[in-house]
């Protein structure tokens, strides 16, 4: 199975918005429809559909300050949304997609770290992110635990 990140188009948007996590996970991540609506009003949003071969299986969105008209000298980036449809979880899709997101962020060469947060509850993706190299920052933002992945060896 080849996992890829693709732009969402008028032809694919309904497929992407119909994807869903399990019932237990729905309180942990916003729906794709809500995420896409938020992206429309955020100049910092970079979003893609996750595909396994030619099947849409997930969605992700970055908060990327380098997308602003006048980017700062030290822009921040965070994984704002990340979901894999319930029927495709546990098959390596999420890991492959996250690896591609990390590579995308690293290749920009603008960021010292990539942040992500999660709701601390049963079924949370904490272990998934820790396995990918994220570490606890000790911070909590709006009730979500914040993790960080250092991207540069000289990062503060």
Characterise the protein shown here.
The protein is of the alpha+beta class. It is built from 4 helices and 7 strands. It has helices spanning 13-17, 32-40, 93-108, 126-131, and strands at residues 3-6, 45-52, 55-64, 77-84, 113-118, 135-141, 144-150. It has a 7-stranded mixed beta sheet with strand order 1-2-3-4-5-7-6.
Task: List the defining traits of the structure above.
156 residues; alpha+beta; 4 helices; 23% helix
Count the helices. How many? 4
Tally of strands? 7
How much is the average pLDDT? Answer: 94
Largest sheet: 7 strands, mixed
**Principal-axes shape call:** globular
The string of secondary-structure elements, in order, is EHHEEEHEHEE
The SS-based structural class is alpha+beta
Strand content: 25-35%
- For the terminal residues, how far apart are their CA atoms? 38 Å
| Residue windows where pLDDT falls under 50 for at least 5 positions | none
Order of strands, widest sheet: 1-2-3-4-5-7-6
Q: How large, in whole angstroms, is the Cα Rg? A: 15 Å
Q: Considering DSSP H and I runs of 4 or more, what fraction of the residues is helical?
A: 10-25%
In short:
The chain is built from 4 helices and 7 strands. It is an alpha+beta fold and 156 residues long.
